[in-house]
Hints:
This protein is an alpha+beta fold and 216 residues long. The protein has 2 helices and 10 strands; from the N terminus they run H-E-E-H-E-E-E-E-E-E-E-E. Strands 1-2-6-5-4-3 form a 6-stranded antiparallel β-sheet. The protein has a 4-stranded antiparallel β-sheet with strand order 7-8-9-10, with no helix packed on it. A hairpin with a 2-residue loop joins strand 3 and strand 4. The termini are far apart.
Amino acid sequence: xxxxxxxxxxxxxxxxxxxxxxxxELLKENSLLKTKISKLEKNNAxxxxxxxxxESLKSKSVENKITELRNSKVIKILDERxxxxxxxxxxxxxEYIFERNIELTKLDNVLFAETFGNIREQLNSFGYSVFSxxxxxxxxxxxxxxxxxxxxVIEPEELGEDCELYRVGFFYNVxxxxxxxxxxxxxxxxxxxxxxxxxxxxxxxxxNLTKMKLEK
Length: 216
């Protein structure tokens, strides 16, 4: 065998062995990756299961809180009126009139009043905090139809006093518009909440927070 032929034969053997070793390493790495992916998929499935349980518990907790809030003891009915809103028009195939008595009440629930005061969302001004919360019964509509209450928290003027909590409702699709201080005579003021609700047509109404009266 010629020397040059021997050299080529040796190089071929070396290349074949090297290729086999590389293939073996790749197969080993591929096996390790598959094992890691399988463990990650199992961990992810377990995390999803735990998250589903937590979400379920959270949902039940929120429902319980809403029920507790809705069932707050009414200390006094301050004002009330009859109201009706058209929420589905007949031309759409289903006319629905939402009829009910709207009550402005003072509630005995200091814990929720303090909680609302700490959240500080929606409208806040002049020691008043106003929230709209979906806590009413649903209506026989195809769309999302939870009815809303408006909750009003008044901060105490003196240390050691409790917050006051009020509720007015129920309404459909509430939008809190403004909370304003209205100047009167003799340097006095009234605080007024403006909100919208309903659908056909959308209504804009006001509550005098100083007198706790539904404006007409």
